[in-house]
Amino acid sequence: HGYYIEDATVTGVTFAHNLGVRVRSVDQGAGLHNDDLPAVFWLVHPDNTVVDNAAAGADAYGFWFDADAFEAQPWTQFARNVAHSNGEIGFMGNKRPAPLPVSVFSDCLAYKNRRYGYWLRSYSNARLINCDAADNRGGYYLASEGYQTDPLGRDGIGVMTLEDSLVIGITSNNATLPQRVSNPPCSRLPKWDALSGVELYDGLIGVENCVFAEFRDRTMPGGVTRKGGAFTQVYYASPWAIDPRNYALGCTFVNNGTTVTDRVDFRQPAGAFNGCGGFRKGDNGVASAVLCDLDGCVTGSAGKLVYSNVPFLTPASGAAYDASWNARIVDGTQGVAIGQLELNTLVPEALMTDLASLGVSLPVVDAESLRISSMTRAVTHEIVASTDAMPGQVLVVPRYAVNVLADDTYLYAYPPGTQMNERARYFELSFQFTEPGRFAVTAVPLLPPTSAGVLSTFANGVDLTQLAEQDLNALLAAQRNAWWFDPATNLMWLKFVLASSNGGMSAYDSESVTFQVLSY
Predict the structure, then answer these.
(1) Does the structure show a pLDDT above 60 at 459?
(2) CA neighbours within 13 Å on the CB side: how many for 394?
């Protein structure tokens, strides 16, 4: 690295008016991991001031924010910094600082970085204000983490916003270098698969009052068409679901006769990819992407929902397909709402220990994928499990998240050939990230309890075990969180009813309902 303080406890330092160039990596594997990915500035604590610096030509990153457990505080000041011509990313932060309070990155510039101008992830609330980007393969890859708990035990919503920024795909300086690595690593995708402004990912992510210019399709050497769009999703292989509340507000797109800007170019879900651990399925993130056009700046009509070209998110009527965007559009002001279902079959360690003392085995159901079907619209979608990539292997994490239409009924199914004794004895299922007052009904295959066993059900920590509905009709008619187990099919039926108020959160947030079900 060029400039760095190695100890994460060091604070109160100012980096101002510094220039760093041509930081090179050691031989791969010869040093520490962070030596293989050198940064001009390697920063490990937010309580420092970083202003008026320039980072250029590093093999990896211009500025790298590298800390797992930041204090619950923002950056003292991070402003007026420039990162250009770096081999990977201009401003890089892929770890998860604590939630509170808001970190502000202001008046920065990223240009001619071979992958992204800005790749920033945080549990916290963060704002990028007047942070411009140009001539990067992708302008911004932003991610917050939805619901979380801060170090003081307070629940909150992680929100990241890009505000008042200028985003240019290609400037008149044509010496733009292509991305030098495949996207994602280990895949067979082109090194430069799309020119993007903002790539939608998990959030909540908001893009406000930004100007986009020069994003359009282009024929590359060899006749390959490189797609281009101001908004797209993360790259083709992403097993994570994307927050359905991600939004655009007050944005403009330059089309003045001398420049053309495509507002949206959604990638087509492919269903599978060749990943680091071999052939894998994994495009939840591509298939579940939603952009909420709050004021009509993208589509021309306020309240429109722009989403991936998949039938699973299409209502029975009222959706349009825009071939130039490869996206479907529906009017969110006409009763259509999209939320998220997340199924987790990982048994808590404390529960595993307690039941083991009773001689009860709770194997983890870790199928690579599950199927979910709308029982009213006759459409099915394959949900891929979250993955944790390690050198030489890809580990399946039994967490299956997908965006769904609210006010509908869904059936989960295990892969063909799954035996009864391989069904989950325990699972958590959440419905979240949609409008207050919405509901969802789900049916999940469950290993039935033994004659002397227990079937327990909690909703947001409230014990509903003794409050089962009498039958399916009673469950469907319920105006509250409800459950019913069907012994004929061994399906656990759950009804989620979100709170009618948003609990003091912002207008874009909603309550979440989580059921915990145990059968033994």
Answers:
(1) yes
(2) 19
